[in-house]
Amino acid sequence: MASDALNSPDSPGTGLDTTGVLRFSFTRTQGEFSLEVAGDFGPGITALFGPSGSGKTTLLNCLAGLFKPDDGEIVLNGTDLYRGSPKTFVPPEKRRIGLVFQDGALFPHMSVSGNIMYGRARTPEPDRRVDVDHVVELLGLRPLMDRSPGSLSGGERQRVAIARALAMSPRLLLLDEPMASLDARLRGVVLSYLRRVHADLGIPMVYVSHSISEVLALAEDALVLSGGRVVASGRPSRVLLDPAVGGMVRDDPVENLLDGRVIEPGGMDSSGRVKVGAIEIITPPIDRPVDAPVIVALGAEEIILATEKPSGLSARNVIPGSITDLDPVGDGVYATVDIGVPVLVALTQGAVDALSLEQGQDAYLVFKTSSIKLLDAAPLG
Amino acid sequence: MSSDLTIVLLSLRVAAVAMLIALPIGFGLSWLLVRKQLRGRFLIEAVVSLPLALPPVVIGYGLLILLGSRGPFDGLAFTTFAASLASAIVALPLIVRTFVVALEGVDPRLELAARSLGAGPWRVLMTVTIPLAYRGLLAGVLIGSVRALSEFGATIVVAGNIPGRTQTVPLGIFTRIQAGDDQAAVRLVVVSIALAVATLIVHDLLLRRGGLSGRRHRAGFGA
Questions:
Q1: Strand partners of residue A222
Q2: Which of residues 108-137 of B touch A (CB under 8 A)?
Q3: Same domain, A225 and A360
Q4: What per-residue string of b and e applies to B202-223 under the rule 16 or more CB within 10 Å gives b?
Q5: Cis peptide leading into A86, omega within 30 of 0?
Q6: What gap in Å lies between CA B37 and CA B57, rounded to an integer?
Q7: pLDDT value of position A186
Q8: Residue A358 lies in a domain
């Protein structure tokens, strides 16, 4: 939960604060631009959103200690990292906050393993909670360890950068548009790696992105910056789908990105089948083998919601679930339907009224096979 | 008249001490110029570059005033150290200019990444900045050394031409030509040429291998 109270940037800390991992409230002016932000990041994945020049990178750099605020406070797990008065400034090398740059910023004069061990070697023994071998395995980097960064692909570089930051057992991981330089296929791969890293290691993350779909797939919380100010914060499906906010970011149709596994690839005249959680989704033919991990991309606008099980439909997917949230945004409503995993469905206010939809109600998701796109996911292990 | 060996060894010693003075100062100034948005940047650049534009004799005279009997550092004029100091000052602008280019080739984001990974400023310098800039830095050392070895004008004014103490190779050549001993002069000229050619060859090899600034290493990072 991010607070949007900016009225007291230097109010004293509330002492024991168990809700937020990172609490900040500070100002920084550089030239014409001023950043004046306050927020609270939880133990999950928080998305940081905003148009270019809104101060996202400056915010991350201040949190990591690479830039100094002018005044205010930054508190991580109850410890002051920065305080305007009395003056406290913990230098970046003492913060153990991992930072993943847009294009990786790998050290070109070191091998992949040299890069990964750089931070590790400087982490005090008792703080080494993350098992490097596990991270290397998790991110599929084992075969790359002796390579030089110059010979890696964009997705590989990004994964090495993530591993390098994780290897020092960071207390918080900041990712500055880690997908910006990746093509669509690799996005799915890095996305599933990030999910796995968070599930396995439980390190809180702050994730800068321009893609609403990415954020919806990854983050539990969102903070929206514009012109150096926090303009919105809260649950991503509520905050980011607001047209006022959505207009500031990339104009892409909102997609559900669901982790799945191929049950049957299908072929020339038969559909494929993918298991997502406990349910099965009928998809177009898949050019991947049985058991391969895939990401099922399904547009929120492509799904029909029914309150009773429909019959006699040409749409092949009819999946039962229950409505967990109804978020009015703009002139529409986004329903979150739990089918084992949360799926976002775009509705009109008229439809919500006509069906008198409410939270907790059972519902069926209906969508055509042809509305599904399949993306590469990260191979396991 | 000093022997050839005495002159050459003294010359190397003077140049070595000059480098010990000029390199740390040169590196510090270059680092400030490249990494810090200094208000007085232009002033520092101008002062550092001045010896490049002035006749060395003027530098020597300025030093003589400082190190001479009426100056604040009385007793240093006409010593081996004075010769080194004169060489250091004329070599400094070349060193700074080369170092600045070398350091500009190192992406500052790599240094920031290293800081965030737990390396203090000193360690970042040793493990990231210097390894990435080393070709350019080495080129600066070589160019500075060549300039120090060939220094004449400032040296003769502030350090004189004392055999065994301040008579370096260029001063030795000058003395021998004036004395009409062409053969002895030519021997030192050959030594001089050999030293210069050797240094320039090394410099050229470094340039060809990877670029003066190690720019090869600079990844195309976005904004």
A1: A47, A234
A2: 109-110, 112-120, 123, 127-128, 131-132
A3: no
A4: ebeebeeeebbbbbebbbeeee
A5: yes
A6: 34
A7: 67
A8: yes
Cβ-based neighbours of A363, under 8 Å, separated by 6 or more: A305, A306, A307, A320, A321, A322, A323, A335, A337, A357
Contact, A149 vs A197, CB < 8 A? no
Q: How far is Cα B53 from Cα B43, in angstroms, rounded to an integer?
A: 15
Residue with tokens 């080739």: B105
Q: B105 CA to chain A: closest CA distance, Å?
A: 12
Q: Which of A54, A101, A164, A177 to mutate to test the interface with B (most CBs of B within 10 A)?
A: A101
Do A300 and A198 fall into the same domain? no
pLDDT in tens, A54-109: 899 999 999 999 999 999 999 999 999 999 989 999 999 999 999 999 888 999 99
Q: Taking a C-beta distance cutoff of 8 angstroms, is the pair A158, A104 a contact?
A: yes
**Across the strands, what pairs with A221?**
A46
- CATH code, A349: 2.40.50.100
B138's CB contacts (< 8 A; 6+ apart) are: B206
| A6 lies in some domain | no
pTM for the whole structure: 0.76
Ranges in chain A, pLDDT < 70: 1-20, 181, 183-186, 241-252, 330, 378-381
Which residues of chain B have a CB within 8 Å of the CB of A164? 117
Predicted pLDDT at A242? 67
Chain B nearest C-alpha distance from A105 (Å):
6
**Residues of A whose CB is below 8 A from B221:** 101-103, 105
**Number of domains, chain A:** 2
- pLDDT, tens digit (0-9, with 9 covering 90-100), for A310-346: 988 888 899 999 998 887 776 778 888 999 888 889 8
DSSP secondary structure of B185-223: HHHHHHHHHHHHHHHHHHHHHHHHHH-TT-GGG------
Cα–Cα distance measured from residue A296 to residue A291, given in angstroms and rounded to the nearest whole number: 14
What confidence category does residue B215 fall into, taking pLDDT thresholds of 50, 70 and 90? very low
> With helix as H, strand as E and coil as C, how does B143-163 read?
HHHHHHHCCCHHHHHHCCCCC
What is the distance of C-alpha A103 from the center of its chain?
17
Residue-number span of the structural domain to which A287 is assigned: 256-376
From the list B109, B118, B128, the residue facing A101 with the nearest CB is B109
A68 in a domain, yes or no? yes
CB A1 within 8 A of CB A42: yes
Residue B222 lies in a domain: no
